[in-house]
Write a structure and sequence with these properties.
- This protein is mainly alpha-helical.
- The chain has one domain.
- It has a three-stranded antiparallel sheet with strand order 1-2-3, covered by helices on one side.
- Helix 2 crosses helix 4, helix 3 packs parallel to helix 5 and helix 4 runs antiparallel to helix 5.
- The longest helix has 32 residues.
- The chain is globular and about 50 Å long.
- The two termini are 26 Å apart.
Length: 165
């Protein structure tokens, strides 16, 4: 609970002091947006990611069609905070905990990025499924993966597991 509170407070502090003048709306959301643009362009689509004029988000435009917006909640930081907090709450050896957080964080960040890419391409090709894609399928992917990482951690590396052996 302490780790979650400290990390959440730190992130809120970061967002509060992120003025968006250079990287709109904040650096991390901007980075995720630009990486999304790069990946989708790699698949042969003409993609642009532009600052939204009316809200703190980035517009994703494919072949001239405004399909999605990337908001701060899409950048994956809040789920990374949740992941790190859980792993530390059930920590194991310091070195193992550090590397699990590092590699798990990289995996979560990557999966979240590809989740945004696939969701955007899904909206481009199947706009009629927008609601189910955004509210069921893709949250299920990211939260399901985090759940599996947690279960693996507790059963394999945590002090809780070590105490039962």
């Amino acid at each position: 609970m302490v780790v979650y509170s400290v990390l959440s407070f730190g992130y809120k502090f970061y967002l509060q002091f992120s003025d968006g003048s250079k990287f709109y709306p904040d650096y991390i959301t901007h980075l995720v947006s630009k990486q999304t643009e790069l990946i989708i362009n790699t698949f042969g689509y003409n993609t642009e990611v532009l600052p939204h004029p009316d809200e703190p988000s980035m517009k994703v435009i494919i072949n001239g069609n405004y399909l999605a917006r990337i908001i701060e909640g899409c950048n994956g930081v809040s789920i990374l905070i949740l992941f790190v907090s859980f792993i530390i709450a059930f920590s194991g050896q310091a070195k193992t905990t550090f590397f699990y957080i590092l590699y798990g964080g990289i995996l979560i960040y990557s999966i979240n990025l590809f989740r945004i890419v696939i969701l955007t391409l899904g909206l481009y090709h199947y706009p009629q499924y927008e609601d189910i894609l955004h509210t069921v399928v893709f949250p299920g992917i990211i939260y399901g993966m985090i759940f599996l990482l947690w279960i693996f951690w507790v059963n394999r590396f945590s002090k809780l597991k070590q105490n039962h052996d």
